[in-house]
């Protein structure tokens, strides 16, 4: 679960870097600074996924990524896609962890 979520957050950070480049022409330094801060937080939250705070921060950053659509309009769609990937990483990751735990708990087959 953690690997899937970390990969989503890392890719979001890269996309935010490109969104900052798109916003460079038309927007203020504050919008660019907030975008850079958001990209850094996305990378940091990927490293914090061992703790509950990392999951909370990652979920909060999904909302912030959608809100960056006020600066770069395409981020509404991209943010929605990444929010879906974040939710999918959580759901699929939990199912995968449950299957792994069941596999490890089962007795080994007789050879």
UniProtKB/TrEMBL annotation:
Keyword Transmembrane helix: yes
Pfam families attached to this UniProt entry: DUF4233 (PF14017)
Protein keywords: Membrane, Transmembrane, Transmembrane helix
Keyword Transmembrane annotated: yes
Membrane spanning stretches: 27-49, 61-92
Name the UniProt record assigns to this protein: Unannotated protein
Source organism of this protein record: freshwater metagenome
Upper classification of the organism: unclassified sequences, metagenomes, ecological metagenomes
